[in-house]
UniProtKB/TrEMBL annotation:
Involved in the modulation of the specificity of the ClpAP-mediated ATP-dependent protein degradation. Belongs to the ClpS family. This is ATP-dependent Clp protease adapter protein ClpS. One of its GO terms (molecular function) is peptidase activity. Residues 17-96 form the Adaptor protein ClpS core domain. The keyword Transmembrane helix does not apply.
C-alpha cells in the first residue's frame, strides 16, 4: 500500500484488444449504372433489393454512403472485391474504407 513499497500487480497478461471498426463507403460517379450499384450492394453486402436501392439512391444524391461496418480485415476485403468486380465490368465505381 502507500509508503510500504508494495505495488499492485496489474496487467499480468497481454490484453486482447477489441477490433477497431471500419465503415465501407461507396462513392458516386456519373457513369456507373444504378442497377450495377444495386447488384454490388446485394452481392457483397448481403442487402435485399429494397435496402440496396435505398443506399444506391442515397449515394447518387449525397455523393457518398455507408455500405456496412466491419473489422479492418473484412472491410479491406469488401473494398478489394467491389473494386475488382467494378473493374471487370469496366465501371469507374469507387469504394473505400474509413475508421468508424
Ligand atoms: N450516379 C450514377 C448514375 O447516375 C449512379 C451511381 C449511384 C453511381 C451510386 C455510383 O455509388 C454510386 N448512373
Amino acid at each position: 500500500g502507500p509508503g510500504t513499497g508494495v505495488g499492485v500487480a496489474t496487467r499480468t497478461r497481454a490484453k486482447p484488444k477489441k477490433p477497431s471498426l471500419y465503415k465501407v463507403l461507396m462513392l458516386n460517379d456519373d457513369y456507373t449504372p444504378m442497377e450495377f450499384v444495386v447488384l454490388v450492394l446485394q452481392r457483397f453486402f448481403r442487402m435485399g433489393i429494397e435496402d440496396a436501392t435505398r443506399v444506391m439512391l442515397h449515394v447518387h444524391q449525397k455523393g457518398v454512403g455507408v455500405c456496412g461496418i466491419f473489422s479492418y480485415e473484412v472491410a479491406e476485403s469488401k473494398v478489394s472485391q467491389v473494386m475488382d468486380f467494378a473493374r471487370q465490368h469496366q465501371h469507374p465505381l469507387q469504394c473505400t474504407l474509413e475508421k468508424a
